[in-house]
Write a structure and sequence with these properties.
Number of strands: 3
Number of helices: 2
Helix content: 25-40%
Radius of gyration: 24 Å
Largest sheet: 3 strands, antiparallel
C-alpha cells in the first residue's frame, strides 16, 4: 500500500499522478506500486455497485413499511429576523390510517443569522 505524504491534496508535488480520492477511499491508487488502472477501475465499480444495492434495499424497506410521519422542508424563505431569503422551514405531519396528513409541528432555521423563529413560520406561504 502506498501512503501519500500529508496533507493529501491532488495538487501536492509529491502526489502528482496519484489520485487523492482513490487514496481516501481505497488507501491506494493506480499510480501506486503494485496497482494498475484496471484494478482501480474495478475497485470503484465494486464500491458503486455495493452503494447502489444498499440504496435500493433501503428504498424497498422504506416502501414496505408505511411511514406514519411525513417531513417536508422548503428553503429560501424570507427570515423575519435578518430579512434575508435564507430561512429553511421544516413541517412535520402525522399520516393517519386514511392517508390524510395532520400537522404535528415543525421548525425554522435561518442560515444567514442562525435565528430559529419557531413556531411562527411552521406554515410557509401563509400570506
Amino acid at each position: 500500500m502506498c501512503n501519500p505524504p500529508e496533507p493529501a491534496t491532488e495538487h501536492a508535488p509529491e502526489l502528482w499522478g496519484h489520485s487523492a480520492s482513490a487514496h481516501r477511499v481505497h488507501g491506494w491508487c493506480a499510480d501506486c506500486p503494485g496497482h494498475d488502472l484496471a484494478e482501480e477501475t474495478v475497485a470503484w465499480r465494486v464500491r458503486e455497485n455495493r452503494r447502489h444495492d444498499a440504496e435500493q434495499a433501503a428504498l424497498a424497506a422504506s416502501a414496505a413499511n408505511r411511514n406514519t410521519v411525513d417531513l417536508a422542508a422548503t428553503h429560501d424563505h424570507l427570515c423575519p429576523v435578518c430579512g434575508q431569503e435564507a430561512l429553511t422551514v421544516v413541517r412535520v405531519a402525522l399520516v393517519v390510517d386514511s392517508g390524510e396528513q395532520r400537522p404535528a409541528g415543525g421548525w425554522a432555521h435561518c442560515t444567514a443569522c442562525d435565528a430559529t423563529p419557531h413556531p411562527t413560520l411552521e406554515e410557509p406561504d401563509r400570506g
